[in-house]
Known about the structure:
Layout: H1 28-49, H2 62-83, H3 96-129, H4 134-163, H5 170-177
Helix pairs in contact: 1-3, 2-3, 2-4, 3-4
Amino acid sequence: MTLPTPLGPDPSHSDDDGERHKLGFTRIRDLVLVAVVAGVALWILIHYNYGAFPSLPWPSGISLYVLAALEGVIGFVVRKRVAEKEVGPAKGQLHPINAARLVALAKASAILGAVATGGWTGILVFLLQNGILEAARADRVGAIVGLVGGVVLVAAALWLEHCCRAPDDPSADNAETAPDSPPAPA
């Protein structure tokens, strides 16, 4: 299926081009890349400006846990509805548009979790390198809480995304076995 542009479908593209525009599962390697970039950026930022920042309280990453818990619960609800075939436009069913919105939430949360994981890792690496400073030792707990919260959020977001897939989606089987290979011809 080719996604239309704001002015309509582009006649110069073939149907094979539509696969390029297909929304796929979030790739772990993309999240790792985001985490590495965020980690390096935060390490550089805190390395040169540590004295300008306030201390890190331990509950600084708690919001990541709250978002992860919400997405985990929503994932179980969506999974149950999909398994019981309660997806559709009728009242009491999970509307397909809402499922698509949940996929968008999951993808955005996975990126947020990767940024948080990388950022808190960069901060923690700096704090571990400066173990002689009392302030750095006190800030480690907050960095660890934030780092674990980022990892938990990524896991919950990937779970929610997995729960939102259609049960008879043939591309889901292909994505699990070989995420970078093109779909097999029918």
